[in-house]
Amino acid sequence: MILYEHPFNESIRTMLRLEHLFDRLGQLIARDAAVDHHYALATLFEIMDVASRADLKSDLLKDLEKHKQQFASYRGNPSISEAALDDVIGRIAHAHNGLNQLQGKAGAALSSNEWLMSIRSRISIPGGTCEFDLPAYHAWQKLSPQRRRADLMHWVASMMPLAEALQVLLGLLRDSGVPHKVIAPAGQYQQSLSQGRTYLLMRVRLDVPEDVVPEISGHRLMASVRLMRQDAEGRLKPHAVDTAFELTLCA
After folding, report:
1. What pLDDT is recorded for position 34?
2. Residue 5 resides in a domain
3. How many domains does the chain have?
């Protein structure tokens, strides 16, 4: 089965992009090849670019505080485990404190590293990090995998409060939804959304042939999924077959 996620606003879209980049970064750092660590650096710079939005940090702090207060209001409810509640509130508080102590924007501490910034200025240029352009970077790539990994972990450390905050918030958002089976007649599905609730994320889990992909759209009033099939040349055409899939709406 393949899971697809569709954000309903720009804030969730940014959070999902950052989560995707942090996941890629973790996989690349764990490897040993110099080319993997090159792309780990490129991913680190992408995270800095996405996280440079001025209000990102304040928005995440507000969301964490809102969730903390919401869960605190559940104390004393006999149908809720106090131990589980303490665990959730503790994770939220830890993420909030870590992000709140972060100075400036995520990755701001790396902006003063001239060596890293010299790589950042050339890494988007095709072939811009060749040995004759950046000999010091070429020498770094020849270090042992352990040494390069230690350097990467040191540079990434300033980003980890952001990664933790994203993990907590997106985890809470995903847990808020209840998955249910639906049918897309002739490959098309639409659902009106309750105006009394603001949905932030739609999750579609498909167990179909690999060449069938969903085109997902949604806003505060309507969610829509249209199933498409790739032909031999990669072009998408409607998959006009009654298809069941799992849908989760998260608020």
Report:
1. 97
2. no
3. 2
> Which of 172, 203, 222 delimits the end of a domain?
172
Give the pLDDT score at 97. 96
Cα dihedral 59, 60, 66, 70 in deg (nearest 10): 150
Task: Report the CATH number at residue 160.
Answer: 1.10.3900.10
At 75-87, the pLDDT tens digits run 888 888 999 999 9
Instruction: Let me know whether 202 and 115 are in one domain.
Output: no
202 with 230, same domain: the answer is yes
Residue 106's domain spans which residues?
Answer: 10-172
pLDDT per position as a tens digit, 98-109: 999 988 777 888
pTM score > 0.85 for this model?
A: yes
CB 237 within 8 A of CB 35: no
124, 140, 172 - which closes a domain = 172
Residue numbers in the chain where pLDDT is lower than 50: none
